[in-house]
Structure formats: structure tokens, C-alpha cells
């Protein structure tokens, strides 16, 4: 019999949840699909230098298209045994636009731990959406038997530090060489 780590641990669901931000805007959140690369490319184009710096630890310039698309495909089409991701979508000009992503990746050496990362488009930050997306990721992690979620961020990234501190679970935190590691204990 397969163990949970060998099986398709983070199999993508087909449904979505609709939430309302603090400003009253409607956002739909669902699992990322392998066909979502174009949405991720568009999201990247709309991130400010500061948001890129916080998410990728360097103020990434506009990348050449081939590199950007390769990375977007990799972020959308991944191994479900090791990763899971939710995408947040808002209706703009009659179509769905990506306004945020949260993901977790299992630790290679410790199947009880996953590293997570989150990014929201600048114009959707500070409306409570980060809190809702982290809540969803925590629910998924709990259901899938993850015991620890690790977030690594720049030491000056107050937003993510506050978001994690408020998640409702015990958090262990330490900072070294300009990076902060926060571990959410789920058990
Ligand atoms: C960090 C991030 C995900 C937070 O999401 P968000 O939707 O803006 O957060 P919320 O609105 O749910 O706020 C959660 C808490 O954090 C606080 N917060 C959010 N952004 C903040 C900021 N820039 N500075 C200080 N506090 C901040 C909020 O005030 C709130 O606390 P409160 O309820 O006590 O007021 C979002 O700002 C973001 O995408 N940042 C850029 C990418 C990034 O930093 N990723 C993390 C590294 S992987």
C-alpha cells in the first residue's frame, strides 16, 4: 500500500471559494491549474518592484519572455506529490485576472514540513486577502498531515511577519543575515 507521501498528496480539487475583501471586492480562490501560466505571467507584470523584492528576495526586473513563461509554466504545472497552490482571481474587463498566489512545497528531507510563499498584487494588499489565503493553505496542510509550515522572508518584510504571527497557531521565529524564518506549528 502506498504511503501518503508516495501518493498524490496534494491532488487538485475542482471547486472554488468566493470571498469578499475588506473593501467589499469579490475574489474567487481555487487550486492552480497546469493551464494557468498566462495568468501568472500577467500577475508578475503587475507586481511593483517592492512586492517582487519581498516575494523573490530581489527586485526582479522585467524578465525576458522565454524565461518568464518557463517559470510561469513551472509554477502552474508541478508535481502534486510535492506541491500545492491556490490562485486568487478577480473579474476585470470581463475576464479572470490573477491577483494572488499562495503555495507550499514539501521539504525534501522532512515530509512533515512544507515551505510556503505568498504574493498578492499591490492593489489587493491589506484587504484581508493574505489572511484568507494563508487560512486556506493551513486547512489544506492540516488535512494532508503537514505538521509544520515554514515561511522565509526578508527581515524588513513587516507585512508577512504580521500575517504569520496572526495565523492562530504557535509560531517560532528567528532572523539571521537579513532573512526571517517563521515556523507555524500545526500540531
Ligand atoms: C505579505 C502579504 C501576503 C500580506 O497580505 P495582505 O492581504 O496584504 O495581508 P492582510 O490584509 O491579510 O493583513 C494581515 C495583517 O498584516 C498586516 N499587514 C499587511 N501588510 C502590511 C505591511 N506592509 N506592513 C505592516 N503590516 C502589514 C495587516 O495590517 C494585518 O494586520 P492587522 O489585522 O493587525 O491590521 C502581501 O502584502 C504581499 O503580497 N506582499 C508582497 C509579497 C510578500 O511579501 N510575500 C511574502 C514572502 S513569500
What would you note in describing this structure?
There is one protein chain. 28% of the residues lie in helices and 35% in strands. By secondary structure, it is of the alpha+beta class. An 8-stranded mixed β-sheet has the order 1-2-3-4-5-6-8-7, with helices on both faces. It is globular and about 45 Å long. The protein has one domain (16-185): Aminopeptidase, CATH 3.40.630. The chain has helices spanning 37-45, 49-56, 65-76, 129-143, 158-165; strands spanning 16-20, 26-31, 83-92, 95-107, 110-120, 148-154, 171-176, 179-185. Helix 1 crosses helix 3 (65-76). The chain has 5 helices and 8 strands, in the order E-E-H-H-H-E-E-E-H-E-H-E-E. Bound molecules: coenzyme A (COA). Residues 51, 54-55, 117-120, 125-131, 153, 157-160, 162-163, 166 line the site of coenzyme A (COA). Residues 51, 54-55, 117-120, 125-131, 153, 157-160, 162-163, 166 line the site of coenzyme A.
Number of helices: 5
Q: Span from first to last CA? A: 26 Å
> How many beta-strand segments?
8
Taking strands numbered 1, 2, ... along the chain, how are they ordered across the largest sheet?
1-2-3-4-5-6-8-7
CATH classification, class level: Alpha Beta
- SSE class: alpha+beta
Task: Tell me the major beta sheet.
Answer: 8 strands, mixed
Provide the gyration radius in Å: 16 Å
How much strand content do the residues show? 25-35%
Q: Shape from CA axes?
A: globular
Low-confidence spans: pLDDT under 50, at least 5 residues?
1-5
Query: What small-molecule ligands were found?
Result: coenzyme A
Question: How much helix is in the residues?
Answer: 25-40%
Mean pLDDT: 94
Run of helices and strands: EEHHHEEEHEHEE
- CATH hierarchy: architecture: 3-Layer(aba) Sandwich
In total, the number of domains comes to 1
What is the CATH superfamily label? Gcn5-related N-acetyltransferase (GNAT)
CATH topology: Aminopeptidase
Amino acid at each position: 500500500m502506498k504511503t501518503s507521501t508516495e501518493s498524490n498528496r496534494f491532488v487538485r480539487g475542482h471547486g472554488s471559494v468566493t470571498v469578499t475583501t475588506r473593501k467589499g471586492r469579490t475574489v474567487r480562490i481555487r487550486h492552480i491549474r497546469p493551464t494557468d501560466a498566462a495568468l501568472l505571467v500577467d500577475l508578475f507584470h503587475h507586481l511593483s518592484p517592492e512586492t517582487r523584492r519581498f516575494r523573490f528576495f530581489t527586485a526582479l526586473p522585467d524578465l525576458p519572455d522565454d524565461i518568464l513563461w518557463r517559470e510561469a509554466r513551472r509554477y502552474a504545472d508541478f508535481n502534486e506529490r510535492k506541491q500545492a497552490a491556490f490562485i486568487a482571481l478577480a473579474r476585470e474587463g470581463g475576464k479572470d485576472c490573477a491577483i494572488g498566489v499562495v503555495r507550499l512545497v514539501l521539504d525534501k528531507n522532512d515530509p512533515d514540513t512544507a515551505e510556503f510563499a505568498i504574493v498578492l498584487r499591490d492593489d489587493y494588499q491589506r484587504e484581508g486577502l493574505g489572511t484568507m489565503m494563508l487560512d486556506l493553505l493551513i486547512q489544506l496542510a492540516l488535512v494532508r498531515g503537514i505538521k509544520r509550515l515554514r515561511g522565509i522572508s526578508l527581515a524588513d518584510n513587516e507585512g508577512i511577519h504580521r500575517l504569520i504571527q496572526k495565523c492562530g497557531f504557535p509560531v517560532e521565529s528567528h532572523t539571521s543575515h537579513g532573512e526571517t524564518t517563521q515556523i507555524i506549528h500545526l500540531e
